[in-house]
Amino acid sequence: MKVQFDERIRLTSTVLLLTKFRDLNAKWKLHDLKVDSLRHLEQFADHPCAQAARAIAENNFMWHFYQYAVCPEELARLAGEEPEDFRRHNFGSLIQDFARDTQIASLWQNQAQLWASVQSDCQASLESIRAEELLRRLFGPPPAELVVVPTPLDPATMGFCVRDRNAWYALVGPPNISIEDDKPVSYLENKSMLRLVCIHEFTHFFWKDAQNKCPSFVDMTQQFKDRIEPTGYFKDSYPYVAIRFEEILVRASVALCVCFAEGDQAGRDVLADEVRDYNIDLIHPVYDWLKDKHTQHGQLPTELLGELLPDLIASLS
């Protein structure tokens, strides 16, 4: 697992500062890079790319922008069709015009020391939280390279999983630091948050690949429509039953990784937080099932998870 920037992601996160996504999680302190970038971008609010991004954002979330930037073919595969909003607005061309017109490369050069500190701080934190070790203990060796991409321009604690052709990317926003706090926002702070976000995002890839090996997954999850009635962010962000069920699988997996690192009570504390915040009681039996299967098999690679998914769903019925 390595930490690196990706110019496609960095440019996209810059454009997104001129959309409604800029103000998500606004109660937390902004990273210095975000403050500086917002100042630079003030004069470009009406750039054609910014206008197109705001229009696309009406029907798409931040993840769609990032997946389109890194591998649009994957976005098309997941959606079952070409990403129409991006094509209609000619977004691929407009974002290159945006990079030229805003002289964004010069801004990044002037910010080089800050960007370098973000990368080194994130790398130092990542080495101390054992994220890859915990993922390997649960799932075994990953089938793709794991890349953590710090996104300090994104809202605090926001994370995304983005698939490239030969790599899995975990995009990790800055930690949540109180506005009243005098210290700057740094990836050296709140390492437990970094561990949770990294493991969460990479875990999505394992479960998505497992679902691909279980074609009836979506149909089987429909029986939980009345049992998964989440609240808050979870309800608004995950409107479909299958997606909600996948999120529960991911969050139960994260809790089990925390269990590996700190003991069962710590893992169950993570579950309690999820139930308190989002009312997803189903996460408890999923966690117990995962823990039991891990004890039986030692590791749970995607091929095995795909075979075991019907057993999991049957155990919850």
Total count of strands: 4
Anisotropy-based shape? globular
What is the total domain count?
A: 2
As a whole number of angstroms, the C-alpha radius of gyration is 20 Å
**SSE-based structural type:** mainly alpha
Number of helices: 17
The major pleated sheet works out as: 4 strands, mixed
State the helical fraction: 55-70%
Strand content: 5-15%
The overall pLDDT average reads 93
What does this structure look like?
With 317 residues, the chain is mainly α. It folds into two domains: 2-185, no CATH class; 213-316, no CATH class. It is built from 17 helices and four strands. It has helices spanning 7-16, 32-41, 48-56, 62-70, 72-79, 84-88, 91-101, 104-110, 112-129, 131-139, 191-212, 217-221, 232-237, 241-262, 264-278, 283-297, 302-316; strands spanning 2-3, 145-150, 159-163, 167-172. Strand 3 and strand 4 form a beta hairpin. Helix 1 runs antiparallel to helix 4, helix 3 packs across helix 7 (91-101) and helix 9 crosses helix 11. The protein is globular and about 55 Å long.
